[in-house]
Amino acid sequence: MTTLAASVFQRLSRSNARLLGARDLGAGFGLAAWENAQDRVRYEETRHHVLSLYTEDGTKSRRVDRQVAVGHPGALSLMPQGASSEWQIDGRFRFVHLYIPDAELRAFAAETLDRPPAAVVLPEVTFADDPVLAGLLGQLARAEGVLASRGIQVELLHHLLTAPGWGQAASAPRRGGLAPATLRRLRARIEEELDQPLRLADLAATAGLSEFHFQRAFRASTGLSPRAWVERRRMVRAEVLIAEGQPLAEVAAACGFAHHAHLTRAFRKAHGVAPSVWRAGL
């Protein structure tokens, strides 16, 4: 699965850790439950942000490259994209990992918090206590269905970006981007017209800018080009409709894909499997 090709997931797959379960949550997010014992694991320059929750024990797990206390049930750790760390495990414990793609996190910050993508900076956190965040990650691990999972993801990401000790300090003035009202108007148009071609010229006209200046301002505001944003929104809607069991031809039409084969190619590129295989694994 493309999502779970994250470097941390791959490293654990080559260690003593035993995979208890894994799910592709869509839009590049992935979740995995693990058990490990008597091991030493080093992660090098993670390709995703990784949020970890110790669900059972963990009192004999410690981070060896930093002077911190040992783990405990309910302990949360955050490894930002690009971080490296080393861990010693001297007893058996279980934990859950949420793999968060950087582009999606920045797009969420722009879309939900009107925060410039460049202002999103997550701290490195080891063995923190946050009952709200731990509860949300636990709910996500137990959730059934794409719709239920997505609702919990929204709450979890909002908490991660705004709660003290996590991403709340990452704020900066918006420079060179679209006005918040203009961005909201554009997002609304894109959502309403996902089943249509959505030409760059039309979106630029909605913003009252030339195509050149619109592309630069849109990227400054969201971290993505207009085309990438539209493709992302098409895929998110397609995931929901596919999970609901709608015929793929109808999903393709509702999400602006030219035809069934176009949807299948795009879905396979995003998830590593065909839509039918992904749906069967839910």
Automatic annotation (TrEMBL):
Supply the InterPro entries for this chain: AraC_XylS_family_regulators, Homeodomain-like_sf, HTH_AraC, HTH_AraC-typ_CS
The HTH araC/xylS-type domain, residue ranges: 184-281
Named from the GO MF annotations, one term is:
DNA-binding transcription factor activity
What is the superkingdom listed in this entry's lineage?
Bacteria
Keyword set, alphabetical order: DNA-binding, Transcription, Transcription regulation
Q: Does the keyword Transmembrane apply?
A: no
> Is the keyword Repressor assigned to this protein?
no
* Protein name, UniProt field: AraC family transcriptional regulator
